[in-house]
# Entry
Amino acid sequence: QVQLVESGGGSVQAGGSLRLSCTASEYTSSSDCMGWFRQAPGKGREAVASIYRSFGVTRHADSVQGRFIISTDNAKNTVYLQMNSLKPEDTAIYYCAAGARSCPSSKPNEYNSWGQGTQVTVSS
# Structure
């Protein structure tokens, strides 16, 4: 397992942008597959985007396709989630995850490392 530290959450108005960052403690096979998930109050954990860092292969949920982009800077061992055209329904705690064996993966139970979460609030 790797340690993950997230940053970049905050409050914005609808239509605004935020960029989340997730830095892994090391770049190994355990951190080669990483993803972002979110959980709104009273709802389950939802996949947002995932990336196979060695090959730059990505997957985005339909709900964020065209608005969010996952990317990686392997030299900095950091994965980003650029969020544009934010909507109130994007309000949630966003979690970074690593360690899935099949990649990219949208299944939270395939990841074995999780960050502490960062709050994103979008007001109308």
